[in-house]
Design brief:
Layout (H helix, E strand, L loop, with lengths): L1 E5 L4 H16 L3 E7 L3 H6 L3 E5 L3 H6 L1 H9 L4 H12 L3 H11 L5 E5 L3 H11 L3 E5 L22 H29 L7 H10 L2 E3 L16 E3 L15 H8 L5 E3 L9 H15 L3 E4 L14 E4 L4 H4 L5 E4 L3 H10 L3 E3 L6 H11 L13 H13 L1 H15 L3 H13 L4 H10 L1
Parallel strand pairs: 1-2, 1-4, 2-3, 4-5, 5-6, 6-7, 8-9, 8-11, 9-10, 11-12
Helix pairs in contact: 1-17, 5-8, 11-15, 13-16
C-alpha cells in the first residue's frame, strides 16, 4: 500500500507529518510526503521520499504582507479572510495541482486538517480513502473555544461551540474561490461550507496532541483519535556547537526565547525587547533567531544567541521556555517538563497559551500586541521561581513521555487503510 501525506505551512505543521511518515515507513508502508519544496531537504535527511510542492507558505508569511498581518490582524477572523486570500492566492493553485499529481498512484491520502477542503477534492476525484491529521483541534466543541477564536476565556458551552463553527467557516472562506476552481477542473460538483463541515466530522482524524492536555470531548465523533503529539525525536546528525555547550555548562539553566517564524513588522526591535526583558528578570537567556528573520546581537555574556537547535535536545536543559505558542513548540515545551511563557501572535497560539495557563504549567499569556519589557520580565520570573508550577510541568512532561504517540497514530492508519502489502513487508524485513 502506498500512502501520500500532504502538509504545508510552518515547520510546526510539517514535522508531525514527517514523524508519521517515518512511523508508517518503519511499519512497512510505502510513503510519499507531499510538502513544499523548501522542506524537501528536511524530509530527505530522514530518508523519506518527497513530492516537492510549488509554493513556500513559510516565505509568504514571513514577507512584508505576512508580517503585517501577524502584527496587526492575526487574531481577527474577519480580517483574516481578506488577508489570507491575498497571502495564499499566489501559491494555492500550484500547490494543489502538485498534490493531485503526487497522488496519481496512491492508495490512501493523509491530509493536514487545515487543508481539508483541498484534500477532500483529491480523494474524491481519485476515489481513494482519506484521513486527516491535525496538531491543533479543528472540530467545534462545547468544551472549549475554537483555537483561533480571539476570546479564550470560558463563556459557556454555547459560546464555545459557536466559536468553532465560525472558525471553520472562516477557514472555508480562506479557500473558497480556489476550491471552486479546483473542483471544476477535476470535474467535481460544487460544494458548500456545510459539506466541508460534514466531511471533517465523518472522515477519520488523527488528533496529534496529548490527551492529557486535551481529553476527547463527548461531542466529538469516535472517528477522531487523540494519539499524542508527533515530534521528530533523536536527530542523531545534529551536534551542539562547542560554544553552546560551554554556555550551558557555565551557570544555571537559562531561559529559552524563540518565536519560530513569527517576528512581526520589526524583528530587530523585538530582539532588543526580548534581551532587555531577560536582563531585567535576572535570568540567563538563550535567544534562538532561527528562520524568523529576527535580528539580534548579544548585549550581555548572560545571553547566548543561537540560530538553531532541535527543541527536543534543547528544551529539557532550560529553566523555562518563552515562545509564540505554535502547536509543535508548545508540545515540545510540555514534553520537556518545563514551564512556558507564551506570546501569541495569531491563530491557535492564543488557545495553547490559555490551555497551559489553565493547567498551571504556564504563565498568563501575553499577546504580542501587549508585549512589554516589564510584562515579559515578570512572567519569566514567575515561570522560573514558582515551585508549584515547575512541579506540575515536570509531572505533566513525565506522563506525556510515557505515551507512545507515534505507535498510536500508526495504529489509526492501520485501522482505516489496512495492513501494508506483503511484498513491502518482505522488503522491509530484508532491510532490517
Amino acid at each position: 500500500m502506498k500512502i501520500t501525506i500532504f502538509a504545508a505551512g510552518s515547520r510546526g505543521d510539517i514535522q508531525p507529518c514527517l514523524a508519521l511518515a517515518k512511523g508508517l515507513r518503519d511499519a512497512g508502508y510505502r510513503v510519499l510526503l507531499a510538502i513544499p519544496e523548501n522542506y524537501a531537504g528536511l524530509a530527505q535527511e530522514h530518508v523519506i521520499e518527497v513530492a516537492p510542492l510549488r509554493g513556500d507558505v513559510q516565505q509568504v508569511m514571513s514577507g512584508e504582507l505576512g508580517r503585517n498581518f501577524l502584527e496587526k490582524g492575526g487574531s481577527n477572523p474577519l480580517q483574516s479572510v481578506v488577508a489570507m486570500r491575498r497571502l495564499i492566492g499566489t501559491v494555492a493553485m500550484d500547490m494543489v495541482h502538485d498534490v493531485y499529481d503526487a497522488c496519481a498512484e496512491t492508495d490512501g491520502l493523509i491530509c493536514l486538517g487545515v487543508f481539508s477542503p483541498f484534500g477532500v477534492c483529491v480523494a474524491e476525484a481519485l476515489r481513494i480513502p482519506l484521513i486527516h491529521i491535525e496538531p491543533t483541534p479543528l472540530l467545534p466543541t462545547a468544551r472549549f473555544p475554537a483555537p483561533s477564536w480571539p476570546i479564550q476565556r470560558g463563556l459557556g458551552g454555547i459560546h464555545n461551540f459557536i466559536s468553532g463553527i465560525v472558525m471553520l467557516f472562516t477557514i472555508w472562506l480562506w479557500y473558497k474561490p480556489y476550491v471552486r476552481i479546483f473542483r471544476q477542473e477535476l470535474g467535481l460538483i460544487d460544494r458548500t461550507a456545510a459539506y466541508f463541515y460534514r466531511m471533517l466530522r465523518s472522515t477519520p482524524m488523527i488528533g496529534a496532541y496529548s490527551p492529557r492536555i486535551i481529553p476527547h470531548p463527548d461531542d466529538w465523533p469516535d472517528s477522531l483519535h487523540i494519539t499524542g503529539d508527533l515530534s521528530l525525536r533523536g536527530n542523531v546528525e545534529w551536534k551542539p556547537p562547542v560554544d553552546l555547550r560551554a554556555f550551558l555548562d557555565s551557570g544555571d539553566p537559562p531561559v529559552y526565547v524563540g518565536f519560530g517564524s513569527m517576528t512581526g513588522i520589526d524583528p530587530k526591535k523585538l530582539g532588543d525587547l526580548l534581551q532587555r526583558a531577560l536582563e531585567q528578570s535576572g535570568q540567563r537567556g538563550l535567544l534562538m533567531t532561527g528562520w524568523s528573520g529576527m535580528k539580534a546581537v548579544s548585549q550581555s555574556d548572560r545571553i547566548f544567541i543561537l540560530e538553531y537547535a532541535p527543541h527536543d535536545w534543547l528544551f529539557p536543559r532550560m529553566a523555562a521556555v518563552v515562545h509564540h505558542g505554535g502547536a509543535g513548540t508548545t508540545a515540545e515545551g510540555v514534553r520537556a517538563g518545563v514551564p512556558s511563557v507564551i506570546i501569541p501572535f495569531a491563530f491557535d497560539q492564543f488557545f495553547w497559551g490559555a490551555r497551559l495557563r489553565e493547567m498551571g504549567i504556564g504563565t498568563e499569556p501575553i499577546p504580542r500586541k501587549m508585549l512589554t519589557v516589564d510584562r515579559l520580565a515578570n512572567a519569566i520570573k514567575i515561570a522560573v521561581t514558582d515551585p508549584a508550577m515547575r512541579l506540575r510541568a515536570e509531572q505533566c512532561g513525565k506522563a506525556i513521555r510515557l505515551n507512545d504517540s507515534l505507535a498510536n497514530a500508526v495504529n489509526v492508519v492501520r485501522m482505516y487503510f489496512g495492513e501494508p502489502d506483503s511484498e513491502r513487508n518482505k522488503l522491509h524485513d530484508r532491510k532490517a
